[in-house]
Amino acid sequence: MSFKSRPAVFATKLWYSADGDTLDTELSNWLAGVKPTDEDDFAPPVASCKAIIAPHAGYSYSGPAAAWAYKSISTAGISRVFILGPSHAFYLGGCALSKCETYETPLGNLTLDREVIEELYKTKRFEYLQPRRDQGEHSIEMHLPYVYKVFEESIDNIKIVPIMVGAIDQAQEEEYGKILAPYLERDDTLFVISSDFCHWGHSHYGYTFYYPETIPSDVPGVHLRRSGPRPAPSRPIHASISDLDHEAMDILAQQPASTAHAKFVAYLERTHNTICGRHPIGVLMGALSALEEKGKQARMKWVRYEQSNRCVSFDDWSVSYASAFVTF
């Protein structure tokens, strides 16, 4: 059973503009701000781009960073976009699919690929979301305007497959990755992975991990406390956060993907970095690992990293945003 449409619930001043013209201008400006970089050999759009990782915070925070991932997409020949996002609003022990036929955005509606969604449901590894839970999660919705904008010239031919990813372990990430790998392999299909990176701050997120020295270092990380330990004057918290996030980014970019996946899980167990899309990322790594077994070697490249605030004291907070693309 399907429902007709999911409204743009988060099209508010807090998240992104509900006015189509204003939103279109913002997205256009952010995309136009993405420039080739000689030092990183980045010249978008990227031929054979098969997946991107991009943030999902309010656009005033993460919109510019997300543009770097979306500018990487080569739209030619793409007719299907999978969007994998984490569940923030409720506990989910597996992966879930939408019952809707369309997802609304202020720019226009996106059509869901009901045929593929039914194929996935028949594997008996996915459940269906109730409309209130579908509408209560922002991690997928925040990508919809960008998907619409990037594919606006061929939007009538684009269908999306939104998948909400729950609190699954490495084995489940690999299992779901294997199910999705044949779709990722298709020339007409692109994957969008929704994730912010470190959420740092005692009062906001209860996470205060800190590297006392630049990594790599034999000095282990600690958790800052108001009564100690405290950050060193020469080592601001935002520098530690950057090291922490880049450690994860460097691990994920390693080859083969199966090894990178295992190292990423071990990294999370050690640091507990609050990467909210760690499980959608894990599913992507599982899919890449499955395709490696068929001789397809993936390459992941990070093209942008930002922090919402430069933390220097225990009472500060920030969220990190990172953008990447994946090619075969």
UniProtKB/TrEMBL annotation:
Coiled-coil spans are: none
InterPro entries from the xrefs? MEMO1_fam
Q: Which NCBIfam families match?
A: AmmeMemoSam_B (TIGR04336)
Q: Which family does it belong to?
A: Belongs to the MEMO1 family.
**Family matches, as HAMAP family:** MEMO1 (MF_00055)
Q: What is this protein called?
A: MEMO1 family
Record the organism. Suillus discolor
